[in-house]
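Quiz preparation item.
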């Protein structure tokens, strides 16, 4: 049962960022000004334009790595840092969203601590 729960937890954590990134990419590509709008949205928080592609890449690559269990500890650590960044930079004045991102960071830190578990690329190497 523990093995199954480890896989389910890893997949659920990964899907959060993966689905969010897919939706964001759909919004960006679905409108001619989509990317500009995304950059402007990030700019409202004082973030320069470089953060637009950077956030998308971090979420996409991190979530895929976590999903398949490749470099799981690193991917989970990066996504934990990203969740903390989002919480403190973008969600500080939204108490529920702020706490949700803190909880996500906590889950990612647990994934980083406990590793990929079974059914992962990392466990196949061992």
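Solution:
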């Amino acid at each position: 049962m523990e093995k199954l729960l480890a896989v389910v937890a890893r997949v659920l954590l990964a899907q959060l960022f993966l689905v969010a990134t897919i939706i964001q990419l759909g919004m960006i590509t679905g409108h001619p000004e989509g990317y500009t709008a995304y950059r402007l949205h990030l700019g409202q928080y004082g973030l320069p334009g470089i953060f637009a592609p950077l956030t998308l890449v971090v979420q996409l690559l991190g979530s895929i790595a976590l999903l398949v269990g490749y470099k799981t500890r690193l991917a989970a650590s990066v996504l934990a840092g990203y969740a903390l960044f989002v919480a403190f930079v973008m969600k500080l004045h939204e108490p529920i969203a702020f706490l949700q991102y803190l909880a996500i960071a906590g889950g990612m830190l647990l994934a980083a601590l406990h590793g990929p578990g079974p059914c992962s690329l990392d466990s196949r190497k061992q």
